[in-house]
Structures are given as C-alpha cells and as structure tokens.
Design brief:
The complex is a heterodimer. By secondary structure, chain A is mostly beta strands. Chain A has no helices and 11 strands. In chain A, strands 2, 4, 5, 6, 9, 10 and 11 form a 7-stranded mixed beta sheet that branches. Chain A is globular. The N and C termini of chain A lie far apart (36 Å). By secondary structure, chain B is an all-beta fold. In chain B, 0% of the residues lie in helices and 57% in strands. Chain B is built from no helices and 11 strands. In chain B, the strands form 2 sheets. In chain B, strands 2, 4, 5, 9, 10 and 11 form a 6-stranded mixed beta sheet that branches. Chain B has a 5-stranded antiparallel beta sheet with strand order 1-3-8-7-6, with no helix packed on it. Chain B is globular and about 50 Å long. The N and C termini of chain B lie far apart (40 Å). The chains are: A mainly beta, B mainly beta. At the A-B interface, strand 9 and strand 10 of A face strand 5, strand 9 and strand 10 of B.
C-alpha cells in the first residue's frame, strides 16, 4: 500500500462551523505533513509531525489545529475559518523525519469557506 | 531564502512533440524533486535527483540535474494528452532548526493538443 488517503474530498463550511480533515497512510512513514495550496500557487507547508509529535508549525493561525492520534493518522481541525482559508489542503508523508526525501501526497481536500 | 524559478510558466504543444521544462535555483540543490499535479488534485511523484550530473528516466520523461546542482530540466519525448498538467519542481532547503523543508517552484502548466 503506497498511498495516502484524505477525506473528505470536498468540504463547504461556514465561518462559525467546526470541521475536521482526515489523512491516513499505512506505509509505516514516521513523518506526516499538512500543506495548503491556493489556486495557481505551489503548496505551502503548514505543519510537520515527526514520530507523532508536532515538530514544525509554520506560523499557522490557531484556527487550524493539527492532531496526530497515531502513526497512521493525521487530522486537521478547523474552527472559525475565514473565506481566505479556502484552498486545497494536501496531506503528505515521508519515511523518515528530518524533512528530506520523497514525499507521498494525498489527493487533497478542496475546502470552501463561506 | 532559496527560490526556485521554473520556465516556461505555461506551455502548449502538439501531441507527439518534445518539450523541456526548466527549474533554476540561486543556491546549490540538495535533493531536487519533480512532481506532476492535475488541477485540484494531489501531487504525483515523478523523480528525485540528488547528485550533480544525475539523469533519470521513466517512460517518456527524463529529468537531469546539472553538474553544479543549480539547474534541473524535465524533458518529455513524444508528448501525449496524458502528459497534460502542472509540473512542479521542489528542493530540500535546510532550515535553521536543522530540518529540511521542501520549497516548490511556481509550476509549469502543460497543455497537449491532440
């Protein structure tokens, strides 16, 4: 199994809603990532988890709250988002923490904030 | 900070034609990746290059990293409609905390006309 799965594929939410994005991999990778991608822009790193612990937070607003319940799962909890947070959210994983090496990307969740 | 410039920004070619996409860095590249992305979807890994002068091929796609490790090219031979998409180069950039972070180029949008 060499894939990263993400659910849901699409999400529409209001600014007062609370929702969560889910990411899963069964490759035994010990690093997992959240990226945000706006239209016609490259992905931007948000968070990195190494061995289930948050190791990097790229100054992301607190309305985004990541969680890594175990080595296979990564969640991104969303609360009080703004319309400008609408984007494609990509999850990725890699074999070893430290950041270098091939990243396996999921298909993304297309988020629209109304 | 290290920036990656990709050229061209967009490319329209006739099916069967060859094409080249370039990725240039102002600094030495340690770990250069090529990904392909369909609109609104995840990133598909194509190739990773690490050594100066390295060249890798997969099916009709060849990627090279120059000897100085500051420029990479992606060449597609006999393009097909299935090659259409956005091509992104990415490079590992060492952060102050000892962590490698992937910086992506701005992308090249490829259209292949049947």
């Amino acid at each position: 199994d060499t894939e990263v799965t993400q659910t849901p594929k699409h999400l529409v939410m209001g600014m007062t809603n609370k929702k969560s994005l889910k990411c899963e991999q069964h490759m035994g990778h010990r690093a997992m990532y959240w990226y945000k991608q706006k239209a016609k822009k490259p992905p931007e790193l948000m968070f990195v988890y190494s061995y289930e612990k948050l190791s990097i937070n790229e100054s992301v607003p607190s309305r985004f709250s990541p969680e890594c319940p175990n080595s296979s799962l990564l969640n991104l909890h969303l609360h009080a988002l703004q319309p400008e947070d609408s984007a494609l959210y990509l999850c990725a994983s890699s074999r070893t923490p430290g950041g270098a090496g091939r990243k396996f990307f999921g298909p993304g969740t297309r988020l629209t904030v109304l | 900070s290290q920036e990656l410039e990709q050229s061209p920004q967009s490319l329209i070619v006739q099916e069967g034609k060859n094409l080249t996409i370039n990725c240039t860095s102002s600094k030495t590249l340690y770990g250069l990746y090529w990904y392909k992305q369909k609109y609104g979807e995840g990133l598909i890994f194509l190739m990773m290059l690490q050594k100066g002068g390295e060249e890798k091929s997969h099916e009709k796609i060849t990627a090279k990293l120059d000897e100085k490790k500051q420029q990479s090219s992606l060449h597609i031979t006999a393009s097909q409609p299935s090659h259409a998409g956005i091509y992104l180069c990415g490079a590992d950039v060492l952060q102050s905390g000892g962590y490698q972070k992937v910086t992506f180029g701005t992308g090249t949008k490829l259209q292949v006309i049947p």
